[in-house]
Write a structure and sequence with these properties.
A hairpin with a 5-residue loop joins strand 4 (71-75) and strand 5. By secondary structure, the protein is mainly beta. Strands 1-6-3 form a three-stranded antiparallel beta sheet. It has a three-stranded antiparallel beta sheet with strand order 2-5-4, with no helix packed on it. Helix content is 3%, strand content 47%. It is elongated, with a radius of gyration of 18 Å. The longest helix is centred in the N-terminal third of the chain and has 4 residues, at 27-30.
């Protein structure tokens, strides 16, 4: 469990079109080449400490004739932002993916101060 040490809780959220691979014959659609997409997301303002980040698929356009496999994760979470990572493998063909995200964490407060 994460405990917040001050009373100022911030929530930031957004939506990212991660890729649209079918338009240009990209690796996610053709099944050849890198099967990982990454996107850096910057928060609207920095958190005091790295926040908790939740991600979810909000658009998942897959080929119906192949196996549907997906791994969606967050990496490199900092006070300023995080990376969305989508992976697939095997014969899976992914046309496009949109990801929604929510970050919750401590914000700095004008009453915060440090001695050293």
């Amino acid at each position: 469990m994460k405990r917040f040490s001050n009373r100022t809780l911030g929530i930031d959220q957004g939506s990212v079109m991660l890729f649209s691979s079918f338009k240009d014959g990209g690796a996610m659609w053709t099944g050849h080449g890198p099967r990982e997409e990454r996107r850096r997301v910057e928060f609207s303002e920095p958190f005091r400490t790295p926040p908790i980040v939740q991600v979810a698929l909000s658009l998942w356009d897959m080929d119906q004739q192949t196996n549907q496999r997906a791994d969606l994760a967050t990496e490199n979470i900092t006070e300023a932002g995080f990376d969305i990572v989508f992976r697939t493998w095997g014969d899976t063909r992914v046309a496009r993916v949109r990801v929604d995200w929510t970050a919750m964490g401590e914000l700095s407060d004008e009453d915060d101060w440090e001695l050293y």
